[in-house]
Predict the structure.
Amino acid sequence: MEEIKKFILNLVFYVMFFVFSIIAIPPVVLLALLGSLILPKRLVLKRWRRAISWYGWVIIYVLPFPFIKVQYKDLARGDNEKGPFIFICNHRAASDAFLMACLPFECIQIVNTWPFKLPVFGIGAKVAGYLSVKEMPIDIFLLKMKKLIGEGVNVISFPEGTRSDGKDIGQFYSSIFRAAIETKCSIVPYCISGNENKPPKGSFALNPGIIKIHKLSALRWNDYRDMNPFILKNRVREIMKNELARMDQE
Amino acid sequence: MDKKKIEEMVNQVFEESFEINKGELSPDKGIFEDLGLDSLDIVDLVVALQKKFGVKIRDDNRVREIRTLGDIYNFIEALYKEGNFLVDK
């Protein structure tokens, strides 16, 4: 029975993924091109990033339903601070980028080198201003981060750098935390559990189940102003590690 | 300065600047995979070691070959033997 469910999920998801992408992407690209002729660049970028968010929402919430469900829990409901924020997320599966793209904010993501090489998606990400941190010196990265945060753009980062094997959380790279210190931007950890096999590393096959996302309380500048990047990254990692252990046991 | 003193002082750098517990500091520990430093943290480590030992090591190519905590002990010891220390504590 499980195998049949898995077969149907993958068949429906990938066919719909292809069809939806063919239908949705060209008109959005056309609108963006037309918009860039008459609208300010900043506004076009804002709309383009929101379009990516809607696209991600359909891919995550609509296409795999009811075989994969996403449970979102805001554990920081009392926080009423307005962004921009730096969102720090653990990285177990390729679906993380889509899950985080669904956030209802204007966001860009910090990516590895390979997503820029993807057909269509790579171009879309480049146009949206996603940053490939490995392809630039740290001082250029910090300058770009300052500009983005200054414009009110939220930044999503996966500081493990690559997908972890299984449920462990890998060591964090410090560049995004250096950017946080430089910009005094609040850090919001997001923990994702349950998608380690959606799809598993080295495969495209999705498995039915529930993906849990927990948004944790923000670490504000005042919380981390006395920390250096190494201490800050490990503090955030520890908070996320503890929450992930709770989530995996639920 | 003997090797034990050097090890003690290097460990102090890790405890003070990186808040790594003494119990985690042993010569076989990899500074990247076990202690969690990345290439940018290494720059901070070099600065902290320079300050601690009063020695200029930033441009020393041997820094690039460091992989474990034991490599750092050996590197600092070699610098000491070469007479590079400005401050002999």
The first helix of chain A runs from residue 2 to 38.
